[in-house]
């Protein structure tokens, strides 16, 4: 049973002023914690955001060059295979 359901199921939920004040302050405390964490995350992004973008750009460049290398490798195999078939057909016909 969740904490809210437990508080609501009690008979003295409206009569205990301390419990009502604590129940009101709890979401405010959670929101304050979220704001603190958000400020920490924003500080990290402000400090390292440029470096992270640069590293992502480098990774993308390396991946792009690797793809180009693979394409060139495939094209060279295709050219070799086509050259062999042409030379084989040339030797068979003549």
How are the secondary structure elements laid out?
Elements: H1 3-9, H2 17-93
Principal-axis shape equals elongated
Q: What Rg is obtained from the alpha carbons, in whole angstroms?
A: 34 Å
List the quaternary state of the chains.
single chain
Q: Span between N and C termini?
A: 89 Å
Q: Quickly count the domains.
A: 1
* Strands, total number: 0
Alpha-beta content class: mainly alpha
Summarize the amount of helix as a percent range: over 70%
DSSP helix count?
2
Mean pLDDT: 76
Low-confidence stretches: none
The succession of helices and strands, N to C, reads: HH
User: In what range is the share of β-strand residues?
Assistant: under 5%
Task: Give a short account of the largest sheet.
Answer: none
Care to describe what's here?
The protein has 94 residues and is mainly α. It has one domain. The chain is 89% helix and 0% strand. It is built from 2 helices and no strands. The protein starts with a helix and ends with a helix. 0% of the residues are buried. The mean pLDDT is 76.
């Amino acid at each position: 049973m969740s904490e809210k359901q437990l508080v609501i199921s009690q008979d003295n939920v409206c009569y205990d002023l301390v419990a009502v004040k604590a129940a009101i302050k709890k979401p405010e405390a959670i929101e304050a914690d979220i704001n603190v964490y958000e400020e920490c995350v924003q500080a990290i992004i402000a400090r390292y955001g440029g470096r992270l973008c640069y590293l992502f750009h480098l990774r993308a460049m390396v991946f792009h060059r690797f793809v180009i290398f693979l394409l060139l490798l495939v094209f060279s195999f295709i050219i070799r295979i086509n050259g062999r078939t042409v030379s084989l057909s040339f030797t068979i016909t003549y």
